[in-house]
Amino acid sequence: QVQLVESGGGLVQAGGSLRLSCAASGRTFGINAMDWFRQAPGKEREFVARIRWTGSSIYYADYADSVKGRFTISGDRAKNTVYLQMNSLNSEDTAVYYCHQGQNWGQGTQVTVSS
């Protein structure tokens, strides 16, 4: 089993930035993709971004349309850690952000954007 621990959430003003981190531990051998999802109050959990490694340091990134151009996912495969740099945040980005890998989910980290 893989354990995922997110960090970096908080309160930020609209237009500001935050950087989330997700560290994976446990049975991490063979991990080649990790995702970020988010869930806003009263809404379903939705996909945000995915990183897929094709080598030790080469990866592809995919994004939800709502965050393209504002969010950047990156990762350190050797450390089994992924990051989500979030810029130009707005109130619609307010949500609990979850790290996901295979069938594993982190506990989530709250991001609140004040207008």
Structure description:
The structure is a single chain. The strands form two sheets. Strands 2, 4, 5, 6, 9, 10 and 11 form a seven-stranded mixed sheet that branches. The protein is mainly beta and 115 residues long. It is 0% helix and 57% strand. The chain contains no helices and eleven strands. The protein has strands at residues 2-7, 10-13, 18-26, 33-39, 46-53, 59-63, 71-76, 81-86, 95-101, 104-105, 109-114. The mean pLDDT is 95. The relative contact order is 0.32.
Rg over alpha carbons: 13 Å
Mind describing the biggest β-sheet? 7 strands, mixed
Low-confidence stretches: none
- SSE run: EEEEEEEEEEE
General shape: globular
Tell me what portion of residues adopts beta-strand conformation.
over 45%
Q: Determine the number of helices (DSSP H or I, runs of at least 4 residues).
A: 0
Measured as a percent range, the helix fraction is: under 10%
Tally of strands: 11
SSE-based structural type: mainly beta
Terminal residue distance: 40 Å
The average pLDDT score comes to 95
